[in-house]
Specification:
heterodimer, A: seven-stranded mixed β-sheet, 11 strands, globular, B: mainly beta, six-stranded mixed β-sheet, five-stranded antiparallel β-sheet
């Protein structure tokens, strides 16, 4: 079955450490997105990519970095510059950006700073 | 930027009743509006999409309306069941090539037997 796979499901980060969250899709979707979800807040866009080797900052990109070397993969790195990284991270994809199709989301990665 | 308000954080209804959730937005009108369901610890699941030129969209027990004059969408679940208990998110897009969505905080629906 096609879908989006996020790994790991739970991740613990020490202060000052960079960590990378994996996101892989086999839906042949062009666009991919990273969102952050905090309790009581809506999903906030971190980065998005419409095509391979291209990506744009969202509303809260500071302290994060991404790459899009393959259509199927869109990993997110949470750097030590992100001062409050504890959150639930969601990766999503859509067929074509701007078209009238819903997003397909992964099951999320819960990141905790220890 | 777009501001989205969902009517309340929590809605509790009895099984069999119709649940009605509200999504209001400010600023520019979206080209379309989407509704998602999210269960605890899981990613949102796409339910319905309605375009700005559509007044109503149905899918099984779900119905969505879109009033661009009021800048509001209503999401109805008829004959609600305990299995419908979840958080429901409203999301807006401008229909541009950016394809980005703005999400509301969600309404937590609980359907009790």
């Amino acid at each position: 079955d096609g879908g989006i796979t996020q790994s790991p499901k739970y991740l613990f980060r020490k202060e000052g450490q960079n960590v990378t969250l994996s996101c892989e899709q086999n839906l042949n979707h062009d666009a991919m997105y990273w969102y952050r979800q905090d309790p009581g807040q809506g999903l906030r866009l971190i980065y998005y990519s419409q095509i391979v080797n291209d990506f744009q900052k969202g509303d809260i990109a500071e302290g994060y970095s991404v790459s899009r070397e393959k259509k199927e993969s869109f990993p997110l790195t949470v750097t030590s510059a992100q001062k409050n990284p504890t959150a639930f991270y969601l990766c999503a994809s859509s067929i074509v950006p701007g078209e009238n199709y819903g997003y397909t989301f992964g099951s999320g990665t819960r990141l905790t700073v220890v | 930027s777009q501001k989205i308000e969902q009517n309340s954080e929590a809605l509790n209804i009895q099984e069999g009743k119709t649940a009605t959730l509200t999504c209001n937005y400010t600023n520019y009108s979206p080209a379309y509006l989407q509704w998602y369901r999210q269960d605890p610890g899981r990613g949102p699941v796409f339910l319905l999409l309605i375009r700005e030129n559509e007044k109503e969209k149905r899918k099984e027990r779900l119905k969505v309306t879109f009033d661009t004059t009021l800048k509001q969408s209503l999401f109805h679940i008829t004959a609600s069941q305990p299995a419908d208990s979840a958080t429901y998110l409203c999301a807006l897009d401008r229909g541009s090539t950016l394809g980005r969505l703005y999400f509301g905080r969600g309404t937590q629906l609980t359907v009790w037997p």
